[in-house]
Specification:
The protein is mainly alpha-helical. The chain is built from 18 helices and no strands. Helices cover about 75% and strands about 0% of the residues. It is globular, with a radius of gyration of 22 Å. The termini are far apart. About 60% of the residues are buried.
């Protein structure tokens, strides 16, 4: 079976790609309006919604970028893994019921719809849509780069395929992604999440035990080997340091409530009371899947340090290399197919919220009305956004996890004050919301460009997204306290009182 490893993995990927085409075509038949395309008709059950939420968070950012981050920075990534389930709790506490009520009341198909109604401001709608659009490019770039990285590694294991560049892998990945997303919309995404979420929870446990038995001495042996090279890597703060890790923890715990691809799914469940069951399902699913992140990252670093495996060309190759070399071929094929499913469905979620911002919210904010043939233009915008994200991914060439963290930080800083706080605090004003969004975008992108152009890094490895989030929260509270309390629409106030 080892001789057929490459073939088995390719067959698994091929079967998955074929299933994507089938799901996309099936979902297209169910997608008859923008309400179906953007919020799945608000008719999802507990299992589908719960798995869709955790799958959207994990994706290529977790399954490819996570092990790469552990390989490069040690146990620093634990603070992200701990932060995200806590973030689910924060998000559901602040928004689980409220977003579903607002969605029903306003018949909204996007997050900026809710923002515009809450603040009675079309400028708020436009800025929220702009923040989503910019964050989508960064985060979607991470998904495309993750998919291309896996595809390149798989194809390189089959000599008869010849050399294939990352550029070509990005092109292939984007083409499949565009077809899948344009045809099926969010319906294709959430039903793919249902299957791949279940698969990845089980597969992650098998990968965890495979990793444990791959290295002599198990995890104890890995820790000793890594500690001999760099004791800090297996310490509580990893190689990033205390302030850097705490900045990640804050960003991912608090920032979860500002991730549009996650919180918009709270508008899609069939019944409002379902949120209490969706939360534990999402948290358990993420926790089980995160076993893959830690185990693969640690075992690959230990194997390289011990001389049992050649140095990796780049950190993001940790997961593909482990699966190709050490996992059982069938398990590797299943996990690779699951990885592609996770990436595709999450990318679809990003393209979905980005397309809504581009063709639904911005025209409403500027023209005061929706576009004619909005569903058609939503599909065109989906293809255009995928192209822009692919170019961004190729240009930046960052680690997948760092690209994902940038997108996460962009969303968090712009939307946590406006949405998570604003939908629970009547004193919040439109001016405070607008200033918070504009400031967060400026700070986040200036820090990113400074790092790229001048090499400037924030001291103590503090994440730029955390700085942006703290600044936007401070300004949001300060301006709201210094302003007169706004008059709310009676229906909006009634929902906020519940």
């Amino acid at each position: 079976m080892e001789e057929a490893r490459g073939t088995i993995v390719l067959v698994a990927i091929a079967v998955y790609m074929a299933s994507c085409l089938a799901i996309g075509l099936w979902a297209m038949r169910r997608t008859k309006s923008t309400r179906d395309f953007f919020v799945a008709g608000r008719d999802l059950g507990i299992l589908v919604t719960g798995l869709a939420i955790f799958s959207s968070t994990m994706s290529g950012f977790g399954f490819v970028g996570g092990p790469g981050l552990v390989y490069r920075m040690g146990l620093s990534v634990m603070w992200i893994i701990i932060g995200i389930p806590i973030g689910y709790c924060v998000s559901f506490f602040l928004l689980g019921k409220r977003l579903r009520l607002f969605g029903e009341l306003l018949d909204s198909v996007s997050l900026p719809d809710v923002v515009a109604a809450r603040y009675r401001s079309e400028l708020c709608r436009f800025l929220a849509a702009l923040a989503i659009l910019l964050g989508v490019i960064g985060y979607l770039g991470a998904q495309i780069l993750a998919m291309a990285t896996i595809l390149q590694d798989i194809l390189e294991q089959n000599p008869w395929m010849g050399d294939i560049s990352l550029f070509h892998c990005v092109f292939i990945s984007s083409a499949v992604l565009v077809f899948y997303c344009v045809t099926g919309g969010i319906i294709a995404s959430v039903y793919t999440d249902l299957v791949q979420g279940l698969v990845m929870m089980v597969a992650a446990v098998f990968v965890f035990f495979t990793a444990m038995h791959t290295f002599e001495g198990g995890f104890s042996g890995m820790v000793q080997t890594i500690a001999a090279d760099d004791a800090g890597a297996v310490g509580p703060w990893g190689t990033v340091g205390m302030l850097g890790c705490l900045s990640w923890f804050f960003l991912f715990a608090v920032g979860s409530a500002g991730q549009p691809h996650v919180i918009t799914k709270m508008m899609m469940n069939r019944r409002i009371e379902d949120a209490r069951h969706i939360l534990p399902l999402s948290a358990i699913g993420y926790t089980l899947s995160a076993l893959l992140i830690i185990s693969v990252g640690m075992v690959m670093r230990a194997l390289v340090l011990s001389g049992s495996h050649a140095d990796l060309d780049h950190s993001d190759a940790a997961a593909p290399q482990f699966l190709q070399t050490y996992a059982h071929p069938v398990l590797a094929g299943i996990v690779f197919a699951g990885l592609f499913a996770a990436i595709m469905s999450t990318a679809d979620a990003f393209l979905n919220v980005g397309a809504a911002a581009l063709v639904h919210d911005m025209p409403r904010a500027i023209l005061g009305r929706s576009l004619v043939h909005e569903l058609f233009w939503a599909r065109c915008a989906t293809a255009a956004l995928a192209l822009m994200a692919a170019v961004f991914a190729l240009y930046t060439q960052d680690l997948v996890a760092l690209l994902g963290a940038f997108g996460w930080g962009t969303f968090a800083a712009a939307l946590v004050p406006v949405v998570a706080i604003g939908l629970n605090w009547k004193r919040a004003t439109a001016l405070a919301a607008n200033v918070a969004i504009i400031t967060s975008l400026l700070v986040n992108f200036v820090l990113k460009l400074s790092s790229r152009i001048t090499g400037f890094e924030i001291p103590y490895a503090i994440d730029g997204g955390t700085v942006s989030l703290l600044v936007s929260l401070l300004l949001f509270f300060l301006i709201s306290f210094c302003s007169r309390q706004p008059k709310l629409d009676p229906d909006i106030e009634a929902v906020m009182d519940m």
